[in-house]
Amino acid sequence: MSWDPFRDLRKMREKMEKMFRELESETLPQIQSQKRSSTPSSPSKPFTDVREKDGDVVVTMDLPGVSKEDISISIDGRDLIVSAEKSAEKEERDEEKGYIKRERGAGKIGRKVRLPSNVDEEEAKATFQNGVLEVTLPKVEKVEEGKQIEIE
Length: 152
Fold this sequence. Notes:
This protein has 152 residues and is an alpha+beta fold. Helix content is 20%, strand content 37%. It has helices at residues 5-27, 29-36, and strands at 48-53, 56-62, 71-76, 79-86, 89-91, 102-104, 107-114, 125-129, 132-138, 147-149. A four-stranded antiparallel β-sheet has the order 1-2-9-8, with no helix packed on it. A four-stranded antiparallel β-sheet has the order 7-4-3-10, with no helix packed on it. It has a two-stranded antiparallel sheet with strand order 5-6. A hairpin with a 2-residue loop joins strand 3 (71-76) and strand 4.
């Protein structure tokens, strides 16, 4: 049997295609679900910033289109857990309101953020303004049980 460079290239292409399929199915389920859905949806993992400021850990998270009442914040050890639910609005035509097409993403939004240090759950504060959630957590040395955080 003689050497066939095209056979080797085909094998390499097949391996790469398999690798990309596995990568896409394992690490990009959000993109897959959006491809299958006929309506646009918002990201299930909102953009998040974590920083240390004046002895506090400050977590800022974008939650556009979510109301304060639909947000749940809790702490479990060194994990900050934020979840929210956003309702859908979709209309093809609404002559009365002047819409030609109107659609808004819906679904559950959530994020589990590993905090860089232990925090004082009792002194945690959260604010929500203009679709941006900011959680301020004072740093401490000891670890306590999980606690629900109320939004001011």
